[in-house]
Model the fold of this input.
Amino acid sequence: MLTSRHGLTLLLALSITVSSGTTAYTWPDPRIDLLESILYQQNGFRQYGLAFGVAPCNNQASTLETGRDDSAEWFRTAYHDMATADVQAGTGGIDASIGFETDRDENKGKAFNESIGFFIGFQSVRSSMADLIALGALFSVGSCSNGEVIIPFRGGRVDVYEAGPSGVPQPQESLDSHTAAFARQGFNVTEMIGLVACGHTIGGVHGENFPEIVPVVNDSNNMASRQDFDESFDNFDNSVATQFVSNSMQNPLAFGHNETTRSDFRIFNADGGELIRKMAESQQLFWDTCTTLLERMLNTVPRDVQLTEVIQPIPVRPKIKHPSGGHPTTGHAKSRRVRDVIPTYTRV
Ligand code: HEM
Ligand SMILES: *[C@@H]1O[C@H](CO)[C@@H](O)[C@H](O)[C@H]1NC(C)=O
Ligand SMILES: *[C@@H]1O[C@H](CO)[C@@H](O)[C@H](O)[C@H]1NC(C)=O
Ligand SMILES: *[C@@H]1O[C@H](CO)[C@@H](O)[C@H](O)[C@H]1NC(C)=O
Ligand SMILES: *[C@@H]1O[C@H](CO)[C@@H](O)[C@H](O)[C@H]1NC(C)=O
Done:
């Protein structure tokens, strides 16, 4: 099996093979152009490199502590931003409100502040924080699954600048409460089981954040005291399901010492254990279920927000030609004003 180190290469390779999209695209399109570049130009041309934050999957680039990973944190950030959505009312979803909600009990840990701190460098009028949160999750699962879970990306999410209602599920809540929370977010019981299994296949529970669930350890290799959800915390695979079905005792939210916080146990059994068994039996079914559910999760937005078509790589377009002052290797221009653009057609 490929190691996660190869995830990014594969992710980019797959991205390019889907380039024969049929959507008619005309340059310029301010809703799409910059997002397309951030999505597809990691290592080449303008080298946005956002995906390198989570490639390899166990990258710790922006966390100074061992026992934490950006990939798991970016992914969890997207869920916590979405989790306060009310699809009936048409409010909430991925709208970057999480940035104003980090002092809440339901958002414990440094993950949210630090993920947003990383994304700020890419935020602009043409790339909202909400779109970057969605892209972060997309890159994370693409890298951690070695390119098996490629979520089609639509842009156009709109940022809010204040906290929204609370309502992120917490592990000590009852199954009824979780069922109601996921229904509010637009997911039925089967989909709740799938989404939680897809979420809890990378990363783990940190004693630093949840000492009532896992012990705080004194280990310089695990400063945040993480106990992994499954045997491969840095691989987006179905081992969370196989280990659950075989009673391996690894997942702290399924088998932890504290019965009150065994939310994964209650959720995975909510349909009599049927879906988690199927996900354990088939790696492919696990990936397919996650691709579908996570696309819906990332596309949950307030009713008045209109997302773009799925963004495909633009095969050919003008690039900015800058007479002087541009970066010699990256080609970064001094000025991004459109009237400075002298079209020189390049394959990007
Ligand atoms: C009832 C629903 C859920 C509950 C109660 C829950 C609870 C938790 C808890 C307590 C942690 C430990 C966080 C830490 O110690 O830093 C965690 C981690 C995580 N959760 Fe969930 N979660 C739920 C659903 C989801 C969903 C739907 C997703 C994504 C689709 C998700 C993604 C993650 C990820 C990626 C981590 C690992 C974070 C890391 O290692 O830094 N969770 N969850
Ligand atoms: C995140 O940053 C905000 C604003 O700087 C601050 O109010 C909040 O306490 C921080 N939360 C955490 C968990 O660090
Ligand atoms: C949830 O919806 C899916 C369709 O997306 C359906 O296949 C499944 O049976 C539903 N589950 C429940 C419990 O209604
Ligand atoms: C178990 O978790 C609950 C909810 O967080 C907490 O109130 C309780 O103190 C915990 N029990 C133990 C033994 O840690
Ligand atoms: C943690 O471990 C280090 C080295 O093993 C030791 O020097 C230190 O006293 C320990 N700290 C605590 C709080 O146990």
In short: The first strand starts at residue 204 and ends at 206.
